[in-house]
Each structure stands twice: as structure tokens, then as C-alpha cells.
């Protein structure tokens, strides 16, 4: 501060000198110095002037200017002096203000941004612990003690941030429903709020009980109707002559029952829909991949010896999951009026579970190994490798057009699994009892999934524990409702949050994060260009192009800025929660089927819940998307200091960029197309570097579990690189 004031003083002296040389009313320093060097004082000069005037014989008065001129000259001098004083005063004041501002700018943390950012950081640390003793506890101890929710196994700050956003949406929906909400709303937002009210109205749901769900079961033709009407036994005991209509109905009965499940957005035996072509990311095509089991993950179904329906029936042998499913099936039968102790009922259920078991263990190893086996075949080829299903009939009905036999069909997890599925189905089709097992299995998956939208007063037994895998625990009802609504109202629901935050603030925040993403992309490109991992120029070129071509979706889709687009979602609301959920999710699936002949819109987000989801990287289109409910404190905010925004959302963006080079990411090129993009030598170097992460992570664990380290490898790499690139950008 002292130096700065000295500098200002020198500047003022210079200004005064400059002003003196220009103003004839003030003697210059040079003139004064010259007078003193001649040995003549100012007083002597005055006396000499007086003597000279007297010597000429003229009075001094006669040489004075006229009074008017003297007065004018005096006024002018005073005015200039006043102006000079004012200029100097203003200059000094302005200089002092600038000096003060610059001084206080160097003080630690006086701005609102800094104070609030520091407060949030201090709240999360545990200052009672020395960082060198336990850095994790020091850095996160405060947050662990104050924020961790033990109801959730994977609780983290991102989940906490999203939950806070969801709570704000919920509060707003309550006000929309009771009429106290003051902000303008559109039909889509009001429909979302109404469906949330339906979802949380447990009193009405308990009064309704299973009534609507039972009607739904009836619409599907009932579950295990063959055991009720005895027609199956008659048909197997006697040869029954079938009329032409019955023969026609039976010709596609398996395809029709699967289509009925798809109509309600449940996908038994396999999944089929319209997705981006992995080999040409600008086009859509029909895509098929294997189903996921009713319960748990596929590896839970493996058993050390051959399983049979009889073993499942007895509930004494087999993997725990099949024994649990047998109990669930029997309890479901009891709910629908069957005698759950009846051996025929129990055996039918055991055969359905055996079918589930066969399909699951025959599946590809894709979900375990995470290796791409994406294959595109023509419809006629699909019919040849999986003949048990009439694919032309099924897929034509699904997409609503008569498909050519040359129509390209993508098998997302390869061709390994679908011939096995076909042989299982074909064997069941050889008898009416087998067909009954197949049809009732499809119905079972359909009615089990939608049982999550029914709320009977009594929920005892294993059945309702299984249903809670779809609906969540009662304590998580609010989150279940928000997540289901976010799929049915992907624009309208997050739009409510956008209005809560303020549209101007939200747009500024999105723009700020977009700027962070742009800078991280630039830095990432610099890092890969200078990396020694890529031994050949072709691999380096492909990697650099992939980084530079990556699309970044931040916040929410463009359509969320349009009331017209959101109001289209309003029709998904129905008069009861059950049908709102069932038909709402169905309409979303059917809308996506309509993309078949359309080019991929480069502005389309890839998630069905784009603005209320999790940050993600999409391989086939080479893009990342950061949803709106993640663009919030403490991860990002325009009122938070930049370093905190880079540490938060910047690290997440860098994390998602890094997934472009994980096990699957390396198989996709600059536009997302599948292919060979890395040389063998570059892959080898990358693999060697991966081993360092595996060893380091395993060493941090008391168990030194190498398997856990391998499973989390690419997430750990993405965390590390994401933090590094965000830091490199900010410093």
C-alpha cells in the first residue's frame, strides 16, 4: 500500500509540473532557477522595476492596465486556479479509490462468492484431523457426519445434489396442486404435478388395492388360465379338431403374446426397439438384445450342476434365486385366487422359472466381460439363425410397417445367444403344455413389473419384497415417484426446477458450465497429443479427433425451452396412477419406435430422462451429457468461485470424457462408429498403464482385492484423469 501511494505521489508531481509549463499564470521551475542563478532575488527585481518606471518620468499608475482589464484578468486567474484545484482533487480521489480497491482485492476472501464457497468447503472438512494422518477424514469428515444417508448403499455428493433438486421439484408440485404456486405453468408441468399427487396418495391407492391391476391381468387373458378351465388337459388327452380361425390364431400366438407385453413396455425373452446404428451413427435401425432376468443379475442364476424343474419345485436345490422365485410365484398365484399348494400350479410355476433359468445362463457374456459383439444382419438371416419366432411378423407389427426381408437388424450383444433362445422356444412350442409355460412366463414378467403400481393394505411375504425391487421401499416412495415421472415427463418435470431456479440464472449457469466443458475439451486434446501412450501417428490422430469431435450436452434439451413440446406430454396423464404409469411409459417407448426412418438428430439427447439422470458418456454417438439436476451447488453455480466449479462439475466432465477410452470406448471412433481405431502397440501400452491403477487401488484396500480393483478400473481412471484435466485447465 505504501509503495502504491508513493507511486501516486510521484505521478501527481509530474502532473503538476506538466500543468505549470502550460499555464502562463504560474512561474515555471526553469524560470525560477534561472533568476536565482543570476544572483537577483525576487525582491530586488521588484525594486528595479519601480526605479525604472520613476526614471522615465512617468508615474507607475499610468502604466497599469485599465480597471476592467485588471478585474477580468483577476477573475480569469481565479477561475483557472479553481478549475486546477478541482481537477487535482478529483484525480487524487480517483487514484486513492483505485489504490484501495486494488489493495482489498489482494486480501483473502472478502467477496460474497469467496465467503460462501469457503463456508461450504469448511462445512465438509473435519479440522480435528491432521491431513497428513488421515486425508480422507480431513477432507470429507464433515460431510460424512452431516450428510451421509445410510438408507442408500451408494450415497455420494452427486446423489445428494440430485436429491436436493428433486426435493425442490416436489415442493413446487405440491404448490401447483394446491393452487399456491405463483410462477406460470404449462399443461405438461401441471400433468406431471398431478401424476406425482396420484403416486403419493397412498390412501387412495390402498382403497383401490389390486382392483386395477387385476383388470390388467384379465386384459392379458389371465395368468395360467389353462389350469382354471382344464382345456390344457383335454387337449393333451384327446385330439381336438381345430377350426380355421383357431389355427390362424395359434399361428402367431407366441409373437402376439410377446407383442402384448411390449405394448405395456415390458420385454420378456428379448428386447427390441429402434436405436442408433453403431456402425453408422447418423442412422437408426431396429435393434434386438437379450433380456435381463426378473430378479438380480445373471450371475446369480449359475449353479454347479444341471438344474431341473423338479429341483425348483422342491425348493431344496438350485441357486437361491430360483428357490426365491418359486416362493414368489406361489404367493402371486394365491393373490390371483389359485390354491398355492396345488401341485399343478406349483409345477407350472417351476417350469416358468426353469425357462427363466435357461434363458439367463444361455445368454452372452456381454454383461460380464463388457466386450462389444455388435452385429448387423438382414431380416432373412435373423429368421434363419432364430427360426422359432416369426421375426417378419413380429417386427413388422412392432414398428407398424411391412418390413422387407433385407431390412438390417442389429443384434446388440452378438449372435451367440439368439440361436440358443430360439431352440429353447422351439422345444416348448412342440406341445400345448410347453406353449402354456411360454405364454404364462411372458405374462408373469408383465404383471410382476406393473404390480409395483398397486398398493394393497397387506404387503407381507416374499412377493412384495420382490416387487420392492421395482418400486423401492416405502421410505423411498418419493424418489420412486420422481424417477418414474422423469421418464414419462422428461421435459415437463425438470422444467419445474428450471423455473424455481429462475430461467435467467439457469441459462447463465448452463452457459458457464458449457464454457468449462469447452476449456476441458481443449486441454484434453492437448494432453492426448502430448501423451506417450500412442506409439503410432494413426492412433494418435484417431484419439485426438475423437476428443475434438465429442459433443457436449449440458443442462437440458432444446425442447425444454418450448411450452409446445412440453404440452405434448400432458396426454400421458390418466385418471388413476396405475394407468398413468403403465400407459405413460408405453407412450414413450412407442414414440422412440417412430424414429426408424429418421436420421439421428445431432441435438437429441440419448437418455429417456435427459435432465434428471446421471452424467453419462454415450459410445455410439461420441457424446457426453450432464443433466440439469447435476448443475447445482456444490458442483457448479455462477455464484460460486471458479476453482470450485472446475473441481466439481469440471472433474465430472473430464471423467465422462475419459470413458471414451475405457474398455468399450476404445472400440468406437471419432463419430462413435464401431471399428479398429487403436494399433496393437498402443493398446498394449494402455493395458500396461492400467495395471498401475489396479495395483494402486488394491493396495489401498485392506483385503488387497484384485478383482474389486479390476471391476472399478475404468471408473478409477476416469476419476483420476477427470480431476487432473480440470486442475490443469484452472491453474
Automatic annotation (TrEMBL):
Polar residues bias (residue ranges): 47-60
Domain Peptidase M13 N-terminal per the UniProt entry, residue ranges: 131-557
Cofactor(s) demanded: Zn(2+)
PANTHER family named in the record: PHOSPHATE-REGULATING NEUTRAL ENDOPEPTIDASE PHEX (PTHR11733:SF133), ZINC METALLOPROTEASE FAMILY M13 NEPRILYSIN-RELATED (PTHR11733)
Domain of life, per lineage: Eukaryota
Cross-referenced InterPro entries: MetalloPept_cat_dom_sf, Peptidase_M13, Peptidase_M13_C, Peptidase_M13_dom_2, Peptidase_M13_N
Entry keywords, A to Z: Hydrolase, Membrane, Metal-binding, Metalloprotease, Protease, Transmembrane, Transmembrane helix, Zinc
Annotated stretches, region: Disordered: 47-75
Protein name as it appears in the record: Peptidase M13 N-terminal domain-containing protein
Peptidase M13 C-terminal domain segment(s): 619-728
GO biological process: protein processing
GO molecular function, one term: metalloendopeptidase activity
PROSITE patterns for the chain: NEPRILYSIN
Similarity comment: family membership: Belongs to the peptidase M13 family.
CDD domains: M13
Pfam entry (one): Peptidase_M13
GO cellular component: plasma membrane
Residues passing through the membrane, by range: 80-104
